[in-house]
Design a protein that fits this description.
This protein has 145 residues and is mainly beta. The chain has one domain: Lipid/polyisoprenoid-binding, YceI-like (Lipocalin, Beta Barrel). Helix content is 8%, strand content 50%. It contains one helix and nine strands, in the order E-E-E-E-H-E-E-E-E-E. Strands 2-3-5-6-7-8-9 form a seven-stranded antiparallel β-sheet, with no helix packed on it. The longest helix has 11 residues. The radius of gyration is 17 Å and the shape is elongated. The protein starts with a strand and ends in a 6-residue tail after the last strand. The mean pLDDT is 88.
Length: 145
């Protein structure tokens, strides 16, 4: 199993409009089982020079009152962009609101062929066609200047 993580997710949530935009640089992922895997990830599969980031932007479907502290199960509907391919997705997330700050956790699957990511036949058996994505993100309430 190959695993990589990044602490470089950037994003905004507009609670009044129920919109969001998230972006992550592909090169920010660290981990992997070897430096060679990391190199192949960036150069051969996700082509991070050509497609430097992934993004998800859209709207929160549920009409929960996020001004109240609590836990909420929501669905985010939007456009997931990865490897130059945009795909409409609905992604379930758990949102925790505490003192105006928001913590979001989500797990979802990306299918490699859906985003035109080519895997050479020679390593096809070793590279999964499904990628499990786990997101944990904290959003701080913007203070007025």
């Amino acid at each position: 199993m190959i695993s990589a993580t990044s602490n470089s997710l950037h994003g905004l949530i507009d609670l009044e409009k129920r919109t969001f935009a998230l972006r992550i640089l592909i090169r920010s992922f660290k981990g992997f089982n070897s430096g060679l895997q990391h190199e192949h990830f960036n150069e051969n599969y996700l082509e991070s020079e050509k497609f430097p980031d992934a993004s998800f932007r859209g709207k929160i479907i549920e009409q929960d009152d996020f001004t109240q502290d609590g836990k909420y199960s929501v669905r985010a509907k939007g456009i997931l962009s990865l490897h130059g391919v945009e795909q409409e997705r609905i992604i379930k997330s758990e949102v925790t609101v505490l003192n105006g700050n928001i913590h979001v956790e989500s797990k979802f699957i990306i299918l490699v062929p859906d985003h035109d990511i080519k895997v050479p036949r020679v390593v096809h058996e070793k590279v999964a066609s499904e990628i499990l994505i786990e997101v944990k993100a904290d959003f701080k309430k913007k203070t007025e200047n």
